[in-house]
Write a structure and sequence with these properties.
Layout (H helix, E strand, L loop, with lengths): L1 E9 L5 H17 L3 E17 L2 E13 L1 H13 L3 E10 L10
Antiparallel strand pairs: 1-3, 1-4, 2-3
């Protein structure tokens, strides 16, 4: 399994419950597809350098997970159809996940 990272830019108009629902959905997709969520890092509300969908602020969340190759395509498909997600970017951090890095 590879170590992957996905950065999400969420709408500033989402409530806390709506954000938690989106993050829970992402976690469920990772687990369902055979991966393991390592870290959910909520950066919070930040100013944007340029308007995105006529908004100048956005809520950033960084997801770090161990994933087989097919998981990334499914996760990005779910992200694309999820309301409230403005932008996202997925990056491979490492070719394999060390046993000491995994979070229970």
């Amino acid at each position: 399994m590879r170590k992957m990272e996905t950065l999400l830019l969420l709408s500033p108009e989402l409530s806390v419950e709506e954000r938690e629902t989106i993050l829970k959905t992402m976690d469920e997709v990772v687990v369902r597809e055979g991966g393991k969520m390592l870290l959910v890092d909520q950066w919070g509300m930040r100013d944007l350098a340029y308007p995105v969908r006529k908004q100048m602020r956005g809520f950033y969340v960084r997801l770090e997970y161990a994933a087989p190759s097919q998981l990334v395509a499914e996760l990005e498909r779910i992200i694309r159809i999820t309301d409230g997600v403005f932008k996202f970017m997925t990056v491979k951090l490492a070719d394999s996940v060390e046993a000491t890095e995994e979070v229970a």
